[in-house]
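Hey team,

Filing this mostly as a record. A colleague (T.K.) asked me to run one chain through the structure pipeline before their review meeting, and I want the input and output archived in the tracker in case anyone asks later how it was produced. No errors, nothing strange. Just documentation.

Input sequence:
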Amino acid sequence: MRLKPFKYINGEIYYQCNVCKQWFSKNGFYADNRREIGITSSCKSCHKKTSIRTRNYEKAKARDAISRAKRQKEYKSSFVVQDFDNEVWKVIPKTDDAYFISNFGRVKSLKWGKEILIKTAKSEKGYMQVCINYTNCRKTKRVHRLVAQAFIPNPNGYKEINHKDEDKTNNRVSNLEWCDRLYNMNYGTWKDRRKNSNPYVFVYEFKLIE
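Output structure:
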């Protein structure tokens, strides 16, 4: 085991900081029970600087004030399913009744024997998506399509889904509707937003030719 450099100054033992190479008494270091000597390898000043470079020190300081067991409990509680008022769950087909979608656009799983809320992520195009383990494979599905397939009838066989408020992250069933390509392309402020994003792009109005 590598020994930490030390020397005696006025009868008191001093240790050398591995970063700034200056000498400090034990009070100049943080306590570290994992080390045989009982202190950190760098002094308090250098230890703070390296912590700031590698992570957000204020967040780390607040996090370290909470015990590890409590942090684990808070992390697990973020996956606990707490139903909202008037929330309805339906099973996602071909998942062996292991995954469920709600009319609020949330996904939960019973795969591990208990209800766990599955976190969603935003795709490059701004839609919320989730990874689901089907019977024979694992697929990434868009949440709004799962909601529409489970809760909204589609007698006309439309293939596209429209967000009524034009917010791609709002996947509540009340905000979705089945539609065709023509309706979806001419809906709302899409043409205006397209023009503003690139003035050199010509946006045409789509019309159905019978």
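Quick notes for T.K.: The mean pLDDT is 81. The domain at 89-179 is CATH 3.90.75.20 (Homing Intron 3 (I-Ppo) Encoded Endonuclease; Chain A).
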